[in-house]
Specification:
This protein is an alpha/beta fold. Helix 15 links the parallel strand 7 and strand 8. The N terminus is likely disordered. The structure holds adenosine-5'-triphosphate (ATP) and magnesium ion. The site of adenosine-5'-triphosphate has 20 residues, from helix 6, strand 7 and helix 16.
């Protein structure tokens, strides 16, 4: 039997030694709880295994721990070897079947969210141009304007008229997202927004879930979510639902301080919703762990900075069997940092290092650096002429750097 991604494991056909190997591998790549769960093991597929492997490899890869104590480095190396072995084991039971490999069913779909707490830093410019670039590579791309209070992605994609908007879908004026989708002239399919409607940006949690579900069901290789410039629940929840989470900043202190706040708020929301109805862990709800997390996050809201490692220590002490779940959630959060509007006087290395250091120390988050894009005069011209710069100036430095960055992003 397959689940649409490839061959699945059938427990009934395995010898007990094989099942044991699979459980051990699942414990390394997922968690102990997952390893004990027969339903979970039977639902494993290659995209899940690859994703988990990437996350663990990122966490334990020897190259990612240069400034750690030698003893820690040794432990990480040992863990990395186990993770690689676990990946090899699960892969051997989940061959990528010839009949589905490379077909519609097998295709890995990705949702990429573009956030960053500040307005005017280039989230929409980046989203539009990323979408145009990927569409130019022959991919099916959907660009979604989730800046519900300040929708303008359509303009950056050259569309001045929308036959409908996400708000029409949310207000049930149209039954499906296909009814509002516009094939934009530069390639991506566009789901535009209309912030001129009263209350456009105030949507409830169930509406958000409905929208997210419908977006996930769209036929696309890549779905790009352009988010608003704040840390409201809407923005953060859309950010968290993505597979790739890009945080944009510029070199301005106001911008990178907001980028840090954004990462922090998003992590807190993720932990607060660890067992929420939208979470894959909802069936493993642990009331005590939930309370510990909630109280910790409440205490964070005060003026005292409490690093997340204190939460990990508390859970290790009170619920040692559950600390892996928490570590895993933090490990998989993995935002990617992008510095935009880089000019001559911008010290990108310093900005990136500051953000990475504080994210690691305070949030225990590994903030990966995705890349930088230059301040480019042509962007303003392209914004005025409603032609994405990837099309109007394909040889510009911005377009060149954008290609490298987009490739990194989809390989990541
Ligand atoms: N790399 C760049 N070089 C030059 N100008 C840029 C660059 N990126 C963005 N801009 C300029 O910044 C303006 C704001 O960009 P954009 O609308 O993408 O910001 P935003 O982060 O989406 O803001 P908001 O949160 O308000 O939606 C654009 O009109 C554009 O002129
Ligand atoms: Mg925008």
């Amino acid at each position: 039997m397959t689940n649409g991604h490839g061959v699945m494991i059938s427990l009934g056909t395995l010898q007990s030694s094989e099942l044991q190997k699979i459980r051990v591998a699942s414990a390394y790549l997922f968690s102990l709880d997952h390893a004990k769960d027969d339903v979970f093991i039977e639902s494993l597929d290659m995209p899940m295994v690859k994703k988990a492997f990437r996350a663990k490899a990122k966490r334990y890869h020897p190259d990612h721990c240069r400034d750690t104590a030698p003893d820690d480095i040794r432990k990480r190396n040992e863990r990395f070897v186990k993770v690689e072995e676990a990946y090899r084991v699960l892969r051997s039971y989940l061959p990528e079947s010839d009949s589905t490999c490379g077909t519609e069913a097998e295709r890995e779909r990705r949702i990429i969210a573009v956030g960053g707490a500040k307005g005017g830093i280039g989230k929409s410019i980046f989203s539009a141009n990323l979408a145009v670039f990927l569409a130019g590579q022959g991919k099916k791309v959907v660009a979604v304007d989730l800046d519900l209070g300040g929708a303008n992605l359509h303009l950056y994609l050259g569309e001045t008229f929308l036959k409908g908007s996400i708000n029409d879908y949310l207000q049930k004026r149209v039954p499906t997202l296909d009814d509002i989708a516009v094939p934009s002239r530069y390639g991506p399919l566009l789901l535009g927004g209309d912030s001129s409607q009263l209350g456009a940006s105030n949507i409830g949690f169930s509406q958000k879930l409905k929208l997210v579900k419908a977006i996930k069901q769209m036929d696309a290789d890549y779905t790009i979510l352009d988010l608003g410039g704040d840390t409201s629940f809407n923005v953060i929840d859309f950010f968290l639902m993505a597979d790739r989470r890009v945080v944009l900043t510029t070199c301005d202190p106001a911008s990178y301080l907001e980028a840090y706040s954004f990462i922090k708020v998003a992590l807190c929301r993720r932990l607060n919703r660890l067992f929420g109805i939208e979470s894959e862990l909802r069936k493993r709800k642990d009331a005590l762990l939930e309370t510990i997390i909630e109280e910790f996050i409440q205490s964070q809201m005060g003026s005292k900075v409490r690093p997340i490692c204190e939460l990990l220590s508390e859970v290790t002490e009170k619920l040692p069997g559950r600390v892996d779940v928490l570590r895993d959630a933090i490990g998989r959060f993995s935002p990617l940092l992008l510095v935009n509007r880089v000019g001559n006087r911008c010290n990108v290395r310093q900005v990136v290092k500051r953000l990475q250091d504080v994210s690691r120390k305070v949030l225990s988050v590994n903030l990966s650096y995705l890349g930088a894009l230059p301040q480019q005069a042509e962007i303003e011209m392209s914004a005025r002429s409603l032609v994405p710069v990837m099309t109007s100036h394909p040889d510009s430095v911005f377009a060149r750097d954008m290609k490298v960055l987009a490739e990194n992003l989809i390989m990541n």
